[in-house]
Amino acid sequence: MKTLQAPDAVVMIRPHHFCSNPETRDDNAFQTLSNHTATATSEAARGEFDIAVKVLRKAGVRVHVFDDTGKTTPDSVFPNNWFSTHTGGHVAIYPMFAPNRRLERRTDVIEMLKRDYRVQDVIDYSGLEQDGLALEGTGAMVLDHIGRIAYAVQSNRADPVLLERFCTHFNYEPIAFEARDAQGRDVYHTNVLMGIGTDYAQICLDMIVDAHRRATVAQRLEESGRQVIDLTHAQIGEFAGNAIELTGDRRVLALSSRALRCLRPEQLAVIEKTAQPLPLDIPTIETAGGSVRCMLAGIHLTRRTERSL
Q1: 140: domain range?
Q2: Domain count, the chain
Q3: Is the pLDDT reported for residue 31 higher than 60?
Q4: Which of 58, 62, 206, 245 is deepest in the core (most CB within 10 A)?
Q5: Which DSSP string do the residues of 25-89 spell out, in sequence order?
Q6: 45 or 3, which is more confident?
């Protein structure tokens, strides 16, 4: 059953010149370098991508695929950072921190959304890059679409003024907090440490620096009726927080094979009450510092072939 939290369609960008982005390496502790040549790395990433699309479609998820053949956008496989969609026909376009990530925005994706789905308005924040502001979509924010809360780690990827502006426009309550990994490094994107499903949320509460803020986040998640799966630092390092609930033939939790392997039986049991884990094998793509959640831009819009909500 489709819920506000679990979209039944996604946008994905097939990479043709994938690599670990040198412009984002300074503040993304999850990035690593491939041991292969640039050509081999790119081919491996594209192969992982194509298999992931097949797995998602077999599970009943609608996947809109766009090719990126350019050589200047190594992170284009992660479209969730530059746009998001929202019930009621709303679309947001975001300002990006790294200059080469700003080149990922493309009009054909937005035009497809307008053609195939009911889009009422598009709010474009990208011009604020000229003021040094960034808010990198559903990487910088993890959205509770049901409870209307935007959780956001404080970083150069999530400007607080722009976060407030987004929340005012889209009717979310902002909850911002500092987060660091076990080595004391700032977390660059909120969606690496937490994900919110319909009936559960996975999060590493221990990464939230301030104890009061940590308690607030846990309380708000519990008040929403969700069971909280408290992840460890090590599990976050395996991308266990970077997952997204989708609706296919049944509700699924799309995550990487690496992330699934690190989950404990009792954690999986919570997920499996209402969703089937759907692992995608993407080890090459994960060298760029993002995982399955980053690859999938959920479509929370009404299809034109469906009755309007």
Answers
A1: 9-298
A2: 1
A3: no
A4: 245
A5: TTT-TT----SS-HHHHHHHHHHHHHHHHHHHHHTT-EEEEEEE--SS-TTTT-GGGTEEEETTT
A6: 45
